[in-house]
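Lab manual, section 2.4: Encoding a predicted structure.

Procedure: take the sequence of the chain (181 residues), apply the prediction step described in section 2.3, and record the output as structure tokens. A sample record is shown.
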Amino acid sequence: LKSLKFQIPFTILDFALSSIIITAVLLDNVTSKHLQEDRLERNLGISEMIGEHIYLYLGNARDTVDTAAKFASESYGNMDDIKNEIFRIYDNFQYFDLIFFIDNDGFMLFSKPDNEHAYKKYNYQDRDYFQEVMKNSTSYISNLHISRVLVALHFIIASPVFNVKDEIVGLIGAGIPLPNI
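Recorded output:
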């Protein structure tokens, strides 16, 4: 083992194997970094596309609720007209799992689907959408809530309803179920 015939080839072999191992480790490191960057870039593109779809979905749903609230405001407090309009929207648009009218005292007067128990038992003044609509007189998309009518997770889009004197008489709210988003 101490002869020159053995040490020279062994040193060359050791150097060659070390070079190959170091090159393989560096190549693996560089390749995995590039693969990870490519994956992150693809995921960023997908998340931006999904974000745009959610933005369009919520924008269309908000426009629908705003239109219903404007119609309700123009009906001058005729609750039958308001009820028919929001029920028509519920039946014709798949955005919503629930649509309702709450008066300015926080009581739900009607909803679709119907839940008499929720009308009599709950006051909705504690909900963020009620407070924001009453305070700012503009439409609002709520935080995530558990529906008292459906007992399911959803977001609420709420829009104010005005009387002839431009006073808020209530709000129209529509629930967007979490799975839809």
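Check your result against the sample. Helices lie at 4-74, 79-92, 116-121, 128-136.
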